[in-house]
Amino acid sequence: MNIVLLGHDDIASLFAFASLVEMRPQHRYRLFVSGPLEADTDAPPALAELARADRALFDAFRSRPDLPAPLLAGVPLPRPNSPEGLAALAAAAPDLVISVRYRRILREPAIAVPRLGVLNLHSGILPDYQGVMATFWALLAGEPEIGCTLHRIVDAGIDTGPVVAIERSPARPRASYLANVLSLYPAGVRLLALAVDALAAGRALPASRKAPGAGRYYTAPDRDALARFDAARLTLVDGSEADWLESCGGASKNGGYS
User: Fold this and answer.
1) DSSP string of 51-62, one letter each residue
2) What does pTM read for this prediction?
């Protein structure tokens, strides 16, 4: 299959795609990335520190000599719904589009380009934790579990499409937010790989497994939320994330839908 990957220049997106390409190398991949985002000059310093730590991990991971070639040639696609963006997607002739941390909303004309649709891997349990930094909000709420959700994108709603599968794991409040987020992706990529296998074989995905309830949409934390996070003795980054990446290596080739 021709698979278009939509991601962002951050460590979680790069790690997820590298793992997927490693697990399913028989497909053809083309990477598009969100491109530069508008700088938030009023962003809390803690989020700026998180962004710097993420970028350092991204740069180190991207320098690996064994990184799959398609991931070294990501093309910025900041306006996927524009005529130029739609033309770029169409020129890639995707059978399937996979989104991981892509920072743009796809609208119906873009969603209609791949014949097998669009899948998104969200680093939160849906529908309870939609939107931005879902794992942050789950840790702040004291949830015993965090997780990732594989779902279809069928319209311009954010994290609202039919759920294919949810993978849950114990929250680790003594580990950093970023380490908790990264820990979700090996299992999440296994869900993606199984979905790719099913679609390549002409099988339907179990997309009837829509999680019940309305859920809630979260935005980036403000200074008050970050202060509560700190007061709960939670951390955004602690320097251990590079060790986790090194020990993980890549996604397992086994696993199944939860």
Assistant:
1) HHHHHHHHHHHH
2) 0.93
